[in-house]
Amino acid sequence: MPLKAAFIFIAPHGDPQRHRALTATPEVEVITLAVSSYREAGEVARELAEQGCAAIELCGGFGHQGVAIVAAAVGELAAVGAVRFDPHPLLGHRSGDELA
Q: Which domain of life is it from (predicted)?
């Protein structure tokens, strides 16, 4: 059975129900999805972890606060990692922390 993983990125009008894609190989299935807030990211990450997602990667738009919110929401259910761009060029050279 392939490893289930997710990549969550933050975007001003991100809708995790509409803005999502699945990439699957024999070894791993990665769900890529957009959220519009840290709160939403925590909720979605928890749901994914409860559904068996073992690894959750956060895009560089997540500042330190955002990573902490998602990690707390997931707890021991999944590993949480983060790409680091803080501030992020696609967020107007701001941290996602400023958008929270």
A: Bacteria
Q: How many Å apart are CA 52 and CA 80, to the nearest integer?
A: 13
Query: Could you report how far apart the first and last alpha carbons of the chain are, in Å?
Result: 36
Render pLDDT for 16-57 as a digit per residue (tens, 0 to 9).
999 999 999 999 999 999 999 999 999 999 999 999 999 999
Using a cut of 0.85, tell me whether the model's pTM lies above it: no
Coil vs helix vs strand at 64: helix
What are the distances in angstroms from CA 24 to CA 27, 66, 69, 70, 77?
8, 27, 27, 24, 21
